[in-house]
């Protein structure tokens, strides 16, 4: 698989990375299956794993930790987890619990989870806010890099990277996302200019792009990003994603335009629910 630089960190990752949200009972993935999928992914060169304490009440982190510990592969991977708490104390408590579930004494990356509004951003940056926890954790060696994520409004993440030199940003970069509040159009150029690693997510737009599966992956891979995380709940999905990633050739501008025209009808509130400020807090964790 093609590898790309991860911002200014000096690291490189394959363009396909692992979203661990779905290796849980909730998505009909057993623990044994989860362990097998994670280790198969590592065997095939995937080293970047994204999770969060809020994914199935910690089960995602727990299973990722078990998969790595069982086969002694913790040092083979980069773990990114998150805090959905907006306070220093609450975030540090979440990190302590995450480290226990992941069976590690540190994670490579910790991020502010899905900052949707300027008000949430202000809370994180205020005295006693979550950003204090990220900075303290880095000073203590509990984390290596500081990150932020967002699904909704790219202007919030643009403001964030103007306020603080985040190492990375995880943002919604499906083809459908390009049509409303586009991170690809508004956020990506500025992040690249600043040397911030950008991780694409929502690649399948919560399954709405499944009829265009290969094109959806190719579109996001073709953007100037560091990597893209894709949720995988079965070995079949992993193998399908690997095959597409290994044979990847960048879409031309005309191919991208043609694809966007083909899916333009998806640019509506029923499909792109995460673009709405009415998106209920917590929904992105379980869908």
Automatic annotation (TrEMBL):
Any Pfam family hit: Aldo_ket_red
Domain NADP-dependent oxidoreductase: 16-217
InterPro entries linked to this entry: AKR2_Oxidoreductase, NAD(P)_OxRdtase_dom_sf, NADP_OxRdtase_dom
CDD domains assigned to the protein according to its UniProt record, in alphabetical order: AKR_unchar (cd19100)
Protein name: Aldo/keto reductase
């Amino acid at each position: 698989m093609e590898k790309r630089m991860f911002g200014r960190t000096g690291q490189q990752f394959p363009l396909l990375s692992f979203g661990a949200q779905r290796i849980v009972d909730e998505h009909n993935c057993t623990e044994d299956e989860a362990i097998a999928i994670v280790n198969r992914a590592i065997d095939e060169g995937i080293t970047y794993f994204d999770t969060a304490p809020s994914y199935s009440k910690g089960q995602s982190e727990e299973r990722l930790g078990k998969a790595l510990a069982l086969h002694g592969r913790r040092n083979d991977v980069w773990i990114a987890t998150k805090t959905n708490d907006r306070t220093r104390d609450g975030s540090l408590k979440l990190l302590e619990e995450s480290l226990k579930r992941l069976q590690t004494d540190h994670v490579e990356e910790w991020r502010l989870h899905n900052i949707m509004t300027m008000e949430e951003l202000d809370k994180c940056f205020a005295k006693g806010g979550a950003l204090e926890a990220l900075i303290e954790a880095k000073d203590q060696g509990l984390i290596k890099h500081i990150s932020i994520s967002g699904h909704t409004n790219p202007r919030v993440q643009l403001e964030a990277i103007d306020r603080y030199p985040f190492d990375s940003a995880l943002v919604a970069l499906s083809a459908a996302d390009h049509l409303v509040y586009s991170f690809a159009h508004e956020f990506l150029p500025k992040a690249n200019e600043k040397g911030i690693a950008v991780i694409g997510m929502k690649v399948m737009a919560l399954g709405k792009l499944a009829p265009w599966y290969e094109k959806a992956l190719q579109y996001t891979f073709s953007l100037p990003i560091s990597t893209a995380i894709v949720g995988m709940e079965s070995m079949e999905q992993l193998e399908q994603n690997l095959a597409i990633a290994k044979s990847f050739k960048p879409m031309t501008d005309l191919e991208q335009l043609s694809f966007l025209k083909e899916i333009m009808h998806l640019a509506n509130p029923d499909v792109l629910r995460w673009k709405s400020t009415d998106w209920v807090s917590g929904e992105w964790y379980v869908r």
